[in-house]
Write a structure and sequence with these properties.
mainly alpha, Rossmann fold, 0% strand, single chain
């Protein structure tokens, strides 16, 4: 198994441990929040996201917090899992 396949298998195993995400409907969020979610899942910092989207860091954090609340998640990992499940980013 090459490195890429091993990483993919690891991500798939992590996703399999989150059955609650599988059942979640799409979260209704503003386009800015979706863009922020995608960038969060791609491991950008709040500062980088703010610069890319031309918004404040506080707005980035508000988007992150609102989406986590809607998902019932606790951290950036939950956001990343959700983004992968919804096809916003590649695993």
């Amino acid at each position: 198994m090459d490195d890429h396949a091993a990483v993919r298998a690891g991500v798939e195993a992590l996703l399999a441990r989150e059955p609650d995400l599988e059942a979640l409907p799409s979260v209704a969020t503003p386009n800015g929040a979706i863009a922020a979610l995608k960038l969060i899942a791609e491991s950008h910092t709040a500062r980088e996201i703010a610069e890319i989207l031309v918004i404040s860091e506080k707005t980035v954090e508000r988007h992150r917090s609102n989406i986590l609340e809607k998902l019932g998640g606790r951290d950036r990992v939950a956001l990343t899992r959700y983004a992968i499940k919804r096809g916003l980013v590649e695993p």
